Amino acid sequence: MVQGRLSITTRAALVHYALQLLHIDPYSLHVKPEAQQIIIENMNDIKDYLFE
């Protein structure tokens, strides 16, 4: 972790599974910070690799 940010590198095909392991729901990004303290900073870059 550098400056409060954690960078995770994964293959495109595994993006959805990596988010599942971290218990991050990419479809509910507007939750309270108390409920989900991790955010996806590059959502536009990974949205093509998420399952619908």
Explain what the structure shows.
It is a single chain. By secondary structure, the chain is an all-alpha fold. It has one domain (12-49). Helices cover 21% and strands 0% of the residues. The chain is built from two helices and no strands. It has helices at residues 15-21, 43-46. The radius of gyration is 11 Å and the shape is globular. The N and C termini lie far apart (30 Å). The model has no long low-confidence stretch (mean pLDDT 85).
Envelope shape: globular
Q: How many extended strands?
A: 0
Sequence stretches where pLDDT stays below 50 over 5 or more residues = none
Q: Roughly how many Å is the radius of gyration?
A: 11 Å
What string gives the helices and strands in order?
A: HH
- Helix amount: 10-25%
Structural class: mainly alpha
- Strand content is under 5%
Q: Quick check: average pLDDT?
A: 85
Largest sheet: none
User: Total number of helical segments?
Assistant: 2
Number of domains: 1
Give the termini separation. Answer: 30 Å
State the main characteristics:
52 residues; single chain; 21% helix; mainly alpha
Give a short overview.
With 52 residues, the protein is an all-alpha fold.
Indicate the topology.
Blueprint: H1 15-21, H2 43-46
